[in-house]
Design a protein that fits this description.
- The protein is of the alpha+beta class.
- The chain has helices at residues 3-12, 24-33, 47-57, 94-109, 112-126, 184-188; strands at 62-66, 72-76, 82-83, 130-134, 148-153, 159-164.
- Strands 1-2-3 form a 3-stranded antiparallel beta sheet.
- β1 and β2 form a beta hairpin.
- The radius of gyration is 25 Å and the shape is elongated.
Length: 189
């Protein structure tokens, strides 16, 4: 075995982020090999490179593919688990930039109730919170300063209750003490 195969062997021996996935370092190498920016004449879409790589990957139960943005991914054939390297600093794809712009435009025009109902409640449900109720801003009589009430059940079956006061826009310390102290402790008051 040559130097290249030794390096690939080391990458394959790295820890896997999840079952039926490949190590992050190995996936980064495969993505580099399949980068459409390195296309050669006669293989503009990198279909030949993809087919050659898949010939080898299929033997191990994996297959490479391109997503709608032209980014290469590797998935386990039986479980469909996708091996994606974790990189929070990667550049956004054009589709992600468009979605971000749509979200920013929505957040600029939505009300606090819209923010709670359309963003926070589905997000909190997805995170595993239960009995999520929104007090709303129409009738503040029963709000008691909380916009959302919810509970979270721990694996030990203990229950933790949460209350959230949601604010859209800037939060300032309007309740400053007489000494002019404007910090987070004043907001807690």
């Amino acid at each position: 075995m040559g130097l290249g195969s030794d390096c690939l062997g080391e990458l394959l021996n790295e820890p896997k982020p999840a079952p039926n996935t490949l190590p992050d370092g190995f996936v980064r190498v495969l993505r580099t090999l399949l980068d459409k920016g390195d296309a050669k004449e006669g293989d503009d879409n990198r279909t030949k490179a993809l087919a050659a790589l898949n010939t080898q990957l299929v033997r191990e139960g994996f297959e490479a593919f391109y997503d709608e943005n032209g980014v290469a991914h590797v998935r386990h054939v039986a479980t469909k688990a996708i091996s994606t390297p974790t990189n929070p600093h990667r550049p956004f794809t054009p589709a992600e930039i468009k979605r971000r712009e749509q979200l920013v435009a929505y957040l600029d025009k939505c009300s606090e109730d819209d923010l709670i109902d359309d963003i926070l409640l589905p997000l909190l449900r997805q995170l595993g919170f239960h009995r999520i109720t929104s007090a709303g801003h129409k009738d503040k009589a029963l709000e008691y300063g909380k916009d959302i009430w919810m509970k979270f059940t721990l694996p030990t079956l203990h229950v933790i209750y949460f209350g959230i006061q949601a604010k859209k826009g800037k939060i300032d310390a309007a309740g400053m003490s007489k000494s002019g102290n404007a910090n987070i402790a004043e907001i807690y008051q």
